């Protein structure tokens, strides 16, 4: 089997972070989501992976390279515009050939990986297998309707009145018949070739499409609140270890990871949390469910339930920072000069809560 990872799109729901960064490279528990997807595919025994890229291709290619760090081979497939998941399959035909493949959206995080799912599909005679999971607001997703025997009857993309609470997770297994399907569907009202329409075509033409109900957690990291929730989930399941320096005046919980080169000075770190390599935490409190990426300085302040990206400086803030997603190279300081005032340089679509 081969792997196909979708890593295009503009990530508009994560503005302003995604103005300058591919959404799939934003880290969860200090590891980019795209890296977690590649690892899940590799752990399922698949080493030949195609990545569909768009406007952020240079950044994705620089971060991922040729796949050597995971022991896989990466092929990049350029998509001229975000024209739909089925379009991504269509343009990947030369790479995929007639082999069976798993398609994985590059901004999804799923509990437990996909090893069992891939093995089941390998040994089956299914033409397609789609992963579904119950959700509270199915109108925001592609939704599958099953009959009494558990067979797929209908799939609808973002229905106004869903007939089911089973959402498509963003992990799909296909054989070569999917190319016949994508060649026979038309763009939706959004101007995209929808993968739900392609799967529906397979169902309508008698191909074997098997649903797989995922009972663990799954998160589409499309919005800041979703990034924080994914961060929470992964931190809870990590095996934590301390590889950096912690001085005798600091208190660090057992479920905290301190990466190599990090320094914790006169601070309290409560887990689950992670402090990235070469980051310094001085006279600070880091609360649960916080991930601070590499090469940051956090001093004389408190942070909880937040994600802080690389090369940030957060110093001397009198109130606790929480429920926050802070981008790269951000500086947050308390100014020593008068008159006292908030001095802000903010990008488009920024959100700031002030006391």
Question: How would you explain this protein's 3D organization?
Answer:
The protein folds into 2 domains: about 230 residues, Spore Coat Polysaccharide Biosynthesis Protein SpsA, Chain A; about 100 residues, UDP N-Acetylglucosamine Acyltransferase, domain 1. It has 8 helices and 29 strands. β4, α2 and β5 form a beta-alpha-beta unit. The relative contact order is 0.12.
How much of the sequence is in beta strands? 25-35%
The global form is: elongated
Unreliable spans are none
Question: What structural class results from the helix and strand content?
Answer: alpha/beta
What spatial order of strands do you see in the largest sheet?
A: 5-4-1-6-11-8-12
Task: Supply the CATH architecture of the largest domain.
Answer: Alpha-Beta Complex
CATH class of the largest domain, anyone? Alpha Beta
The name of the CATH topology of the largest domain is Spore Coat Polysaccharide Biosynthesis Protein SpsA, Chain A
> Main sheet, how many strands, which sense, barrel?
7 strands, mixed
CATH superfamily membership of the largest domain: Spore Coat Polysaccharide Biosynthesis Protein SpsA, Chain A
Number of helices, where a helix is a run of at least 4 consecutive DSSP H or I residues: 8
How many separate domains make up the residues? 2
The share of residues in helices is 10-25%
Radius of gyration: 22 Å
